[in-house]
Amino acid sequence: MWQAIGDTLQLLRRQRGMTSIQLAECVGVSVRAIEAYEADVWRPGRKTLQALAEALGVGIEEIIKGCELLYTEEGEMLVVCHTGPHSIKVVGRVAAPLGQKEERACK
Description:
Elements: H1 6-15, H2 20-27, H3 31-38, H4 46-56, H5 60-63, E1 67-71, E2 77-84, E3 87-94
Antiparallel strand pairs: 1-2, 2-3
Helix pairs in contact: 2-3
């Protein structure tokens, strides 16, 4: 059984100011594929997962660690990981409004 990675991919991409188009170009896949990975509709293969990690500047372990997104009433996006049956830990946040995007080129 594999863990859903869509929320983690989306958070990492947004934290780096990348659009799904930019990430798709960096990884060498279609925008539809990126959108499907982020929606947990498709699962990337090993080579694509490695390319995603490289494009996002993280290790594969950070992508597959099993986190999810929550939103505050103010619209801040938080990434949380479950640390026990009744507890979570905030491991990242994106304070900028979701509509704002920065330009970033591939490495």
